[in-house]
Amino acid sequence: MYVIRLADGTLRVPQSLASEDGRLIGNAYVEVEPGEPGYDEWLQESLTEEEAAERQRRWAEENDDLEREFLAFKADQDGD
Fold it and tell me: Strand 4-5's sheet: what is its strand order?
């Protein structure tokens, strides 16, 4: 999940909620507006919605190659 910078400057920051024993309950985004605590730190690593979509698209494309390599490796291992 990425910190997303909206056109009006608002940041959508990923946040996870876990139970007391550490199990993940859920993931969500919280909105942080300019001037709120933590905004400047999150701003440094934020991406526009378009940049985030491009990274996800590239990751999916590159993942296809990685998956093919893994499946070929697994087939070699299963054949031994």
Answer: 24-32, 11-18, 4-5, 47-48
